[in-house]
Write a structure and sequence with these properties.
- By secondary structure, this protein is mainly beta.
- The chain has one helix and 14 strands; from the N terminus they run H-E-E-E-E-E-E-E-E-E-E-E-E-E-E.
- It has an eight-stranded antiparallel beta barrel.
- Residues 1-23 have low confidence and may be disordered.
Length: 283
């Protein structure tokens, strides 16, 4: 009988101790099983790109074409549901499959605008029918300088946008101790790094050689990226995250006019700066 009592007492003591330990475990101590969502804005830089245009009556390449992003600045559109696609934004949904690793899907809504005030070398041929407005550009080009400022030869942009739809796998490490933070449920500092890959689904706005403008969504290629960021979490659930992301984009099937025969291709590197707000939760 005494042995039974001792066993019961030992069981209750162990149970209470475990319960107390669980109650004292901070929410931020473990990530496995958490979901997260974030929304933010970005700025981009792009390397120069050789862009090749092909169609029934032309085939030419513009060498080292320059482009830039199209920033909105600090604006209410970032939180206006009806105008959220106008700024350059980042949306991400993710899940921690371990304490240190997560998988996420998201859209990097970037914008890519050809620098209009530039002169670039063109190589190839243009042989449009004489009745076409763009026939004034007919000829053979052999690394020939062309000035695009007047917009008659070409305007070219992915502004709604250069949509990089991607999956990322990331690592997360709590570095709060470096800042002498004791209670990470109040504030926590995390370092994150990741790799990603995905598709490019741009809406390309182009006016080429006087042809009718085309502006429609189209799967145009693929991309891959790496990133590093700093995450600051407040009161267990809410966070601000800054990221630096670099990557490579290859688009070999860009629609340029209403004719399916007219296409463009290009590849380039990008560098993205991101600030996002988000939250994490368990279901």
């Amino acid at each position: 009988m005494k042995n039974s009592i001792y066993i019961v007492i030992a069981f209750l003591t162990t149970t209470i101790t475990i319960a107390q330990e669980n109650n004292n475990t901070r929410y931020t101590a473990h990530n496995k099983g958490k979901f997260f969502i974030s929304w933010g804005g970005n700025r981009e830089s792009y390397t120069k790109s050789d862009v090749t245009f092909t169609g029934k009556d032309y085939h030419f390449t513009i060498a080292d074409m320059k482009a830039q992003d199209k920033p909105k600045g600090w604006h209410i559109d970032y939180v206006n549901p009806g105008r959220m696609t106008i700024p350059q934004t980042n949306l991400r949904l993710g899940y921690f499959f371990s304490d240190h690793y997560s998988v996420a899907i998201g859209v990097d809504h970037m914008k890519y605008v050809m620098t209009q005030d530039q002169t670039a070398n063109v190589t190839g041929t243009i042989n449009l029918p004489a009745t076409d407005a763009g026939s004034v550009f007919n000829g053979t080009y052999n690394n020939t300088p062309v000035n695009f400022t007047d917009e008659k030869f070409l305007t070219y942009e992915h502004t709604d946008g250069l949509n990089y739809i991607n999956t990322e796998v990331s690592r997360h490490d709590d570095i709060s101790k470096l800042f002498k933070i004791g209670n990470t449920d109040k504030i926590q500092v995390n370092l994150t790094e990741g790799i990603g890959f995905g598709l490019l689904y741009p809406k390309t706005n182009t006016k080429l050689l006087g042809k009718e403008r085309h502006d429609d969504f189209h799967v145009s290629g693929f991309g891959t990226s790496v990133k590093a960021g700093l995450n600051i979490t407040f009161f267990k659930y809410f966070y601000v995250q800054g990221e630096l992301k670099g990557g490579y984009i290859n688009m070999n099937d860009i629609r340029t006019t209403v004719s399916s025969e007219d296409k463009a291709s290009q590849d380039f590197f990008f560098f993205q700066r991101i600030i996002a707000i988000g939250g994490n939760f368990r279901i």
